[in-house]
Amino acid sequence: MNRPTPSRAARLTALATLAALLTPDVGPACPVAPTAERPQENADVEADTDLDSPEARREDRESIRAAMRSFEAAFEARDAEALASHWTAQGEYLDEGGKRIRGRAALRAGFAAFFAATPEVTAEVRPGPIRFLSDGTAIEEGAVAVRRGPAEPETRAAYSALLVREGGRWLMAQLEESPGGGPSVGDLAWLVGEWRSAAGEAAEIRTTYEWAPGEAFLQAKFTLKERAMDLGGTQVIGHDPETGALHSWTFEAGGGIGEADWHPDGDHWVLEAAGTLTDGRTLFETNILRRVDDDTFTWQSIGRLLEDVELPDLPPVKVTRVEPQE
Q1: Which residues form a coiled coil (predicted)?
Q2: Given this structure, which CATH class describes domain 49-181?
């Protein structure tokens, strides 16, 4: 699908499928997907497909994710000793301003002073993709959101963690933060799993999100069942190297396609979407994804324009996580 002209570029976002016109809660099934292909930041180093294979490195990936969750828990507990233990003995931390702290003892002292000065600080780590450089070396990238107190504004930073395996544990040899920390596909990691929503009594939408190999993208598969009709499709969410935005691409089984730019806005995401239906008509809309908790989000489509004809806004739809046994 050709991208909209500049006058419509601001409305670029998620999918416009036939399903979106048939039922108000088809939206949740069509909204989320992982980032576009990552820019070639290490173009001089070719990826080792065996190293990055999710099957070959599944246990290592899970161990690294567990280590980063433990890191976040230590920060939330304001435990400087536990926090410093996530580094190697001579590990380094580089903050956004370029200040370098080296060694566990210095890290422990630095974090203890920081927690004493900001006793109400909280942080949320939003993990991103993991790349393996060797059997015992990996890089994990993501973003962290820090709030120094309930009334303080949230600040964001991007991070890159160089991890090494020592004594069966994955430890950070270096953690480097950089300013900005714009939205990344890692911010949507909480979507991984299966979700369900209902449209009245006759329709049900099921969506499953999972990481693509390499974890640079989220990919989703969705199905809509309504009476005798059965629709479905796929979606990919990730970083668009052309625009720098978090972007999604959606492909409906019947031939409809759509795109969306994702923008965080407080406690929700705003998706400026455009798509082409199977019959060739175009649909532009703004979608709002609001995370309620780890197992619930709402989805609403507003500002809908079908072939220059305004359509009414749709009410929010509740989407809930499906437990594995369901």
Answers
A1: none
A2: alpha beta
Residues 21 and 224 sit within 8 Å (Cβ to Cβ):
no
Nearest C-alpha neighbor of 22 from the set 171, 199, 187, 150: 199
Lowest mean pLDDT among 125-129, 227-231, 307-311: 227-231
Name 255's Cβ contacts closer than 8 Å, sequence gap at least 6: 278
Distance of CA 22 to the CA centre of its chain: 28
Closest CA to 276 of 245, 300, 251: 251
CATH of domain 6-35+186-321: 2.40.128.20
Domains 6-35+186-321 and 49-181 share a fold: no
Q: How many CB atoms lie within 10 A of CB 166?
A: 12
C-alpha distances in Å from residue 243, one per residue of 130, 215, 221, 262, 282: 23, 20, 25, 12, 22
pTM over 0.70: no
pLDDT tens, position by position, 132-156? 999 999 999 888 888 888 887 777 7
